[in-house]
Design goal:
Elements (H helix, E strand, L loop, with lengths): L1 H10 L10 H15 L7 H11 L2 H10 L10
């Protein structure tokens, strides 16, 4: 499965090529959770996709609402 995803993302910045689509919205959240939990291989194309997703304002807002920073503060 990772090989297919890598091939697809190598062809274009988004899953369907040059255009950001509902496919990226559907995968983006799951991808972010899996990436955070080290469930996705650390390949350059995956890192670049994750970085692109993180530049999108709506993705950032969704992340802030879903995983507020205070959840990740280290306890003394």
């Amino acid at each position: 499965m990772f090989e297919l995803l890598e091939t697809t993302l190598t062809k274009g910045p988004w899953l369907l090529g040059e255009r950001f689509s509902a496919a990226d919205i559907a995968l983006g959240g799951l991808f972010g959770i899996a990436w955070f939990n080290n469930r996705i291989p650390d390949r350059p194309v995956f890192r670049a996709y994750f970085d692109r997703m993180n530049t999108r304002p709506a993705y950032q807002r969704a992340g802030q609402r879903t995983w507020p920073p205070e959840l990740f503060k280290q306890q003394p």
